Amino acid sequence: MHNYKNLKIWKKSMDLTEMIYKETSEFPPDEKYGLTNQIRRASSSIPSNIAEGSGRQSEKEFKYFLSISLGSCYEVSTQLELAKRLSLITKEEGDPIFHELDQVEKMIIGFMKSLGE
């Protein structure tokens, strides 16, 4: 078992989620139950699944939860792209979030590899 609060991957994914919450607070009110809610839920799923997986009894189980976190990263990426297309965020606003997201994805993939089969 791992203490998730000590994992760099968990801390980085929490930073990403915080960035997304701050950025989506600027979305129009009519998106509150649409894209705003969806992207926030997907982003918070990333550190949540890392935390849940860290408490599992085997590396295989942990790896499974990391794969769910990775899927949530791809979901967030898609939603951010949609937000850009809908002009809810600008390129300048989105780029730092995409960069952070890319870093989290790479960390998850690397961590999964380190856990082996």
* Helix/strand order, N-terminal first: HHHH
Tell me which CATH architecture applies here.
Answer: Up-down Bundle
The SS-based structural class is mainly alpha
Number of helical runs?
4
Helix content: over 70%
CATH class assignment? Mainly Alpha
What is the third-level CATH name, the topology? de novo design (two linked rop proteins)
Rg, Cα atoms, Å: 15 Å
Give the termini distance in whole angstroms.
16 Å
Biggest sheet architecture? none
Q: What coarse outline follows from CA principal-axis ratios?
A: elongated
**Strands, count:** 0
CATH-wise, what's the superfamily?
Answer: 23S rRNA-intervening sequence
Spans of 5+ residues with little confidence (pLDDT < 50)?
none
Present the secondary structure layout.
Elements: H1 8-24, H2 35-54, H3 59-85, H4 91-115
Helix pairs in contact: 1-2, 1-4, 2-3, 3-4
Describe the structure.
This protein is an all-alpha fold and about 120 residues long. It has one domain: Up-down Bundle (de novo design (two linked rop proteins)), CATH 1.20.1440. It has helices at about 10-25, 35-55, 60-85, 90-115. The longest helix is centred in the middle third of the chain and has 27 residues, at about 60-85. The model has no long low-confidence stretch (mean pLDDT about 95).
